[in-house]
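U., I forgot to send this yesterday:
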Amino acid sequence: MVSAFIPRTENVIGYSLSYVKFTHLVKKYPNTLKCRCSKIGVAYETFVKVHVNFLQVCSSQFIKQDWIDSIFVERNTTSSTTSDIQSYFSFFWQVIAGFCVVSKSTWIDAIANFNASRVLTPMAVAEEVFRSQAQEDLRNHISSAQTNMAQSLLALRRTTAGNQFVSALGTNFYLCYWPSILGNWNNPKMLPVVFNNCSCLNISGCPRPILISTSEDQSVAVPGMIIDCLIVDATLASTLECYYDPTCFRLLHNESTATVNLLLNDSNKYFKVNSTVQNLLDYLMIDELNTEIMFDSFYEQCNPAYCTYSYTHRFSTLFIITTIIGSFGALSFVLRLLAPFLAQVILRWKIRGVSNERIAENVTNSASRQLTVINCVRHLPNFAYQQLSTLNIFESKTIRTRTNLIREYFLTRLFICIFIIGSIGIGFYIFISEQNQVVTIIHSSLETYENLFNEYSTSIQCPCSQVSVPYGAFINVTFVLHQVCSSDLVSPSWLHYLASFNPILIPAWTETEFSRDFRLEGVSYFQLLATFCSLAKINIEDGQRIFTNIQFVNDQLLSRSIFVQQTEALAKSFINKTCNNFARILNWIDIAGSLNRFLTGTNFNFKITVSNDTK
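Result:
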């Protein structure tokens, strides 16, 4: 009965398990099931399908060239700081169309990189764990793509503002003759647009609501629409809510909605009507993302040759039978040992009533037996010698002559000598030869591992329970920017002071063929310096976040020296990659700015002249 209730642990090996059988075993034995994959890396594209729906605006007629051309209003840019707002919307939708194109291109690159990457796991894991890992890897790829696009766009916006590129829309600079009170300025020059004491020399611009005149000559603020010094900045700060509302739409474009399909609020799955374009662009203009993870396809490629699992149970028939048989065998063995002792005790108890004469006789017999035993022990060497001298293991059945006996005795002694010498030789060989011994240590500590590695560096093997670990789990990356990036030279108060300087106060004599007053470009100089500091910080922080999520892949525990070498190489690679990415963005912006021959508001790279020639 006791053996029936003793818990038993059974170890089971299953070969070539099907997907259905595996899922059944995962649910039944989640803690002990182990199935080693036939290959560690499996590409995501073989079992993950991603379906994406972009915002409805990216498929609407508003980003079509026909619509953009139809709302274009041609105007002549004058020296006035007030622009016709109707000419603004065509460029607004050109920017939106560009954002849609860039977002789709960025998404295509991100999903291509994700599909080409591989899930690294030596074991077939539970479906829930596997889905979580795939979703996390997909989020990391999308986040990396979003970060790269945001970095490029921010660098472009900041360097454009810092270089004081002149917009042909007249929203940040306008052309005029400077007053002659401080000298004779022969040529017209650019001056920044100023709105409510906010100068477009500010790198953050001067965002303000768009005001539009109604039929009653009243100025009405357009909901969600922002105008700024640069059209890209204005678009990012604006919303599309006016293109959901028929009344607001007619206010902007003075036409009926019968010929235009407005945006539908019900079509948005995630974003709200009043979400800014910047918020939409941060998510790559994606409104819905559906992921289909086919775990059965992954399991087919994992293709474990066998799976092992263990379980504990009671009432094993075989165990009960073997336990009973073993118990009887052990009981009989114990009784065989104890029976003589018990019998002797019983006999002694029975003979306690025997007479003294009988006892004396027994004592005499006992002494006689002791003498006999002593004599046997004394003659034992002689007896052993006689037995060995007459030992004959080659006794033949032929006629036993003296010659045959001598030969048989000789062969017996020779055999014994050879056997003893051979046994000694084999024993000595076993004693001096090195034997390989496999020692398994469960859950070894770091100190134990290092001690074992120092002693058995060529043979020690420690398989990792996880084949991949994120860098952030064991590498801490910190950085300190140059002191100029925390100085007053890039502080907002200093930049505001420079931007508030009026360039028309500079005397005309300071402008020569080889020199200019530094105050004309001082604001641009320090704004770019502040821009580079902020972009460098953002670039490093984003690179740091991406780097810490990258997986360090190794199925065996490395030694400390090799691990330190690899981590140092990884850190150097991270630093070089971050610097190169930052430099590459700035180089492209520099090339685009130089080759496109942008006119700058500093009046340094071009000279504007007025000709009286009317031909």
